[in-house]
Amino acid sequence: MAPIRNTRVLFNSVPQGYPVPGETTVVDHSQTLDLDAVDLAGGKVLAKTLSISIDPYLRGKMRSPEKKTYNQPFEIGKPLYSHAVVKVLRSENPKYKAGDYVYGVFDWAEYQVFSEGLDARVLPPDSGIPWSVYVGVAGMPGKTAYYGWKEIAKAKKGETIYVSTAAGPVGSVVVQLAKAEGLKVIASAGQESKLQFLRDLGADVVFNYKTTSVEKVLEEHGPVDIFWDHVGGSTTNTVLAHMNTFGRVVVIGSISSYNTPQAEPIANFPHILYKRLTVRGLIVTDHEKEYRDAFYATIPGQIARGEIKYTETIVRSLDEAPQLLLDVQKGDNTGKAVVILADD
Ligand SMILES: NC(=O)c1ccc[n+]([C@@H]2O[C@H](COP(=O)([O-])OP(=O)(O)OC[C@H]3O[C@@H](n4cnc5c(N)ncnc54)[C@H](OP(=O)(O)O)[C@@H]3O)[C@@H](O)[C@H]2O)c1
After folding, report:
1. Is the Cβ atom of 310 under 6 angstroms away from ligand 1?
2. How does pLDDT run across 226-270, given as a tens digit for each residue?
């Protein structure tokens, strides 16, 4: 077979502020692959990429290597990578066979050659949900909601939860878990279509944080027993003052500071003492061993039966991936941001 193009998205330079498509990330069409001739000696696998996840945390990996945090930075000149679903074309690795659908962390490239596959898992071929969903509510973001719910939320029927960034793949699963367990749900997002989705999920109080003050909403509908925090900064500061005694703050994200030099200060920190709050951060990868099997035994089936709902913002080419990466940072995506390169 003649060599074919293998389009990739490369990390080109560290952004100052928001990522800039074509500058901080570049789409590269120069690589070619002969799919029949790629050498797989030593247990390698050749796979075609089906769906790639575009996540808010990827901005944090677009940094210079001397800045240390919980994850590794992307390497300049190398492809970006994130959770994805790929289909195995050829394999010399006993763990994978041709035709397998594999979820794991993969390059932003049309084709992949890998050995182990970071966080890799062979997916059932007939689960009844699209592959893209395995990088959304049935993948890392859904796990974040499920693991945090089990590990930290300690929800009791009748309690009140406030979920910020509630319409995304993490927040929307939290909203649905909370409604299923009989909580009163206050949910915010930044666009009307997202607010409608939240109403459809049954959230009790839905508001646009860009046009309605969090303070006012919580004065009327609080106090809050569980704050599911995706945003940080002034939102977190406000919510701390509206927590109930012995409340739980589940710190999952801090997107208000992902594109700024530093996070806003939290002046209401003393409320953690006054209200005897539990404030705990969660990184999803820390809890795979405890909750992964229960997650896969529960959530994909609920999605297939329509018991857990989701929305997606889809692009169908890697050429559009850098813009979608920016859109996620700015809130211009309306659902789980995903690049679908092929359905099968
Ligand atoms: N700890 C972990 O292991 C883990 C794992 C996965 C995700 N996360 C975090 O969870 C959060 C949600 O992730 P997701 O995948 O569900 O994201 P998402 O909803 O698909 O996309 C991010 C959303 O953040 C909102 N946003 C952007 N800037 C904001 C700001 N300044 N203030 C308030 N909201 C802002 C936007 O929605 P609006 O229209 O509502 O503004 C945007 O659409 C993120 O903070 C992410 O980093 C953490």
Report:
1. no
2. 999 999 999 999 999 999 999 999 999 999 999 999 999 999 999
